[in-house]
Amino acid sequence: MRRFAIPAIIAAGALALAGCTSSGTGGAADSGGDAEKAAAVDEVGILVPADPGGGWDQTGRAMSAVLTGEELVSAAPVTNVGGAGGTVGLASFANERDPYSLIVTGLVMVGAIETNGAATRIEDTTPIARLTEEPLVVVVPADSPYKTLEDLVDAIAEDGQSVVVTGGSAGGADHILAGLLLTEAGLGSDEIIEKLNYVPNAGGGEAVTMLLGGNANAGISGVGEFAEFIEDGSMRALGVSSEEPAALLPDAPTLVDEGYDVVLTNWRGVLAPGGISDAEAQALADLVTEMHDSGQWQTTLEDNGWSDAFLVGDGFDAFLAENVASVGDTLQSIGLVE
After folding, report:
1. CA 187 to chain centre
2. The pLDDT of residue 7
3. Sign of torsion, CA 76 79 85 90?
4. What is the pLDDT of residue 198?
5. Spatial distance between the Cα atoms of 290 and 219, rounded to a whole number of angstroms
6. Contact at 8 Å (CB) between 221 and 200?
7. Is 93 helix (H, G, I), strand (E, B) or coil?
8. How many CB atoms are closer than 10 A to CB 240?
9. What is the pTM of this model?
10. Mean pLDDT, the chain, whole residue set
11. Which of 253-259's residues contact partners 24+ apart within 8 Å by CB, and which partners?
12. How many other C-beta atoms lie within 10 A of the C-beta of residue 259?
């Protein structure tokens, strides 16, 4: 079997993301005496490029709570601009004139940019930090006839469009995972396009509504978005996409356990507007680092079942460059982009 994984980390300094301003401690200012001094940030706006209820919204609001709770800033207002896998929000953010602004991003946005042919790209922003990683989970309603992951995948392969799978945006992590499972089952890209009936949503709450309302046969999302419904018995987990069992769902098997050699984690992080100064980028990197190092943020990670995947500076720039390239290749291999 083939193994698919979107890499979680690239060695610092490996690749540079073309067109992006370096944001980290290694590149935001040179060692000369004329370098700008990073100023303290008093207030930071956080744009969540998705509707309320999903993982990006949870991340943005958790950041706001920690930043203000730890008194790192006086205010951190959150704004939601959903649509098209974050690309609508990203386009809106491109016009942002306040340098001390952040947009939540992640694997979903990387994929959506490619599938939507978005004019505004991550390369048009200033990378600040990667924050978390989270495995995905494949679920079905509690009364579903699909008792195993194999049952579901076989049904899609045999019955095609009659099996509705829902999740996040088209071309995002959830959609990619569905394609990878069908690839592992032996379907080619043309067959995946023909048979996979994937219904995207702007936020995690909409996928939940579809599943619980009987309008979808299966769902894919981050474990944090479905965990409470699995725990209360309204949904059943068929598999998680991490190498090891997920902390929030210790009893759910991994995809590998179920015979599908697929590992995929959904990372999330933050970007700043493009064209800001090195000092402004450094100030934001310093602020997010302080947030990450706080006890309140570590508690937030544990409560949400998020893995700490913190990267700033050259390490995050290199990771982004590799992720953009590898996601594009993966989307082509499963027939989601030409």
Report:
1. 26
2. 41
3. negative
4. 95
5. 36
6. no
7. helix
8. 25
9. 0.78
10. 88
11. 253/149, 255/138, 255/149, 255/181, 258/148, 258/149, 258/150, 259/149, 259/150
12. 15
User: CA 104 to CA 265: how far, in whole Å?
Assistant: 17
Element (H, E) at 161: none
User: Minimum mean pLDDT among 22-26, 151-155, 317-321, 322-326: which range?
Assistant: 22-26
Q: Which residue, chain included where needed, has tokens 């049952």? A: 151
Q: Using one digit for the tens of pLDDT, what is the confidence trace for 232-276?
A: 999 999 999 999 999 899 999 999 999 999 999 999 999 999 999
> In residues, how long is the chain?
338
Q: Measuring CA to CA, how many Å separate 49 from each of 166, 251, 325?
A: 19, 32, 22
190: its two tokens: 């043309």
pLDDT tens digit string along 168-204?
888 889 999 999 999 999 999 999 999 999 999 876 6
| 86 or 54, which is more confident | 86
Exposed, middle or buried: residue 61 (CB in 10 Å: 0-12, 13-18, 19+)? middle
The conformation of residue 334, written as its DSSP 8-state character, comes to: T
Q: What amino acid occupies position 306? A: W
Q: What is the DSSP-derived secondary structure letter of residue 264?
A: -
Q: Which residues contact 188 (CB under 8 A, 6 or more apart)?
A: 335
Taking the C-alpha atoms of residue 114 and residue 224, their distance in angstroms, rounded to an integer, is: 26
User: What is the residue type of 23?
Assistant: S
